[in-house]
Amino acid sequence: MTDFFQDQPLRIAGHAFTSRLLVGTGKYKDFDETADAIAASGAEVVTFAVRRTNLGQEDGPNLLDVVPPERFTLLPNTAGCYTAKDAVRTCKLARELLDDHKLVKLEVLGDDSTLYPNVVETLKAAEELLRDGFDVMVYTSDDPIVAQELERLGCCAIMPLGSLIGSGHGIQNPHNIRLIIEQANVPVLVDAGIGTASDAAMAMELGCDGVLMNSAIAHARQPVLMASAMKKAVEAGREAFLAGRMPRRQSADPSSPFAGRING
């Protein structure tokens, strides 16, 4: 019997991960639900908004009690930043709070109604952060040219949106996502817009190296159950991509051949 195929780990900035599902920590009812959902997701990388998260700099519940750095790879993000200057300052704050932590998720938003990325400010912030020694995973539009430029600057992962942040509309432009994947030499992860398990599976079947999500799990009626569903969807989508889907045909092709059949 042939051994079951063993996938290679996801590698980002010198880190190796078995799970290709990355999750956020916002929008849960409390830290207990956050912890349970993260556990059910099987995620090894957990992202959080530096500006909105207590890491011990204030009294009260501390995220690090729920997501201990010795168990998870923390991914501080710049959610809520609308300029390159603010994003860079936020990443430097994260580095101070987390003892010289270098891996960050950069996002610079264009406005607070669409939360669409401002690619001009994103490029500016990426360049400055990379010069300062950060490992930058970057949230961006699904524009293949912008993605290519971010990789050229040195970003360690490109994270195009599937659709607007928190919208749950899934992947609206799979053709562009595929173009980004085909030209990339660094991991590509869909970030934003995932609504349910089939969206996550679709991202992986396109050839994405991973998926990052928060709202799709936290806003589900049963977040912990949805986290488990997302774990399975990412795994199934990855295996389907590696297996290679059957070709699409214009006509039927019977599973059982007519030749050699027994006639009554």
From TrEMBL:
It is found in: Cytoplasm. Residues 245-264 are annotated as: Disordered. Residues 12-257 form the Thiazole synthase ThiG domain. Pathway: Cofactor biosynthesis; thiamine diphosphate biosynthesis. The active site is at K105. It holds the Pfam family ThiG. Its EC number is 2.8.1.10. Keywords: Cytoplasm, Schiff base, Thiamine biosynthesis, Transferase. Its main location: cytoplasm. 1-deoxy-D-xylulose 5-phosphate binds at G166, A192, G193, N214, S215. It catalyses: [ThiS sulfur-carrier protein]-C-terminal-Gly-aminoethanethioate + 2-iminoacetate + 1-deoxy-D-xylulose 5-phosphate = [ThiS sulfur-carrier protein]-C-terminal Gly-Gly + 2-[(2R,5Z)-2-carboxy-4-methylthiazol-5(2H)-ylidene]ethyl phosphate + 2 H2O + H(+). The keyword Oxidoreductase does not apply. InterPro entries: Aldolase_TIM, Thiazole_synthase_ThiG, ThiG. Belongs to the ThiG family. Catalyzes the rearrangement of 1-deoxy-D-xylulose 5-phosphate (DXP) to produce the thiazole phosphate moiety of thiamine. Sulfur is provided by the thiocarboxylate moiety of the carrier protein ThiS. In vitro, sulfur can be provided by H(2)S. Homotetramer. Forms heterodimers with either ThiH or ThiS. This is Thiazole synthase. It comes from Billgrantia zhangzhouensis.
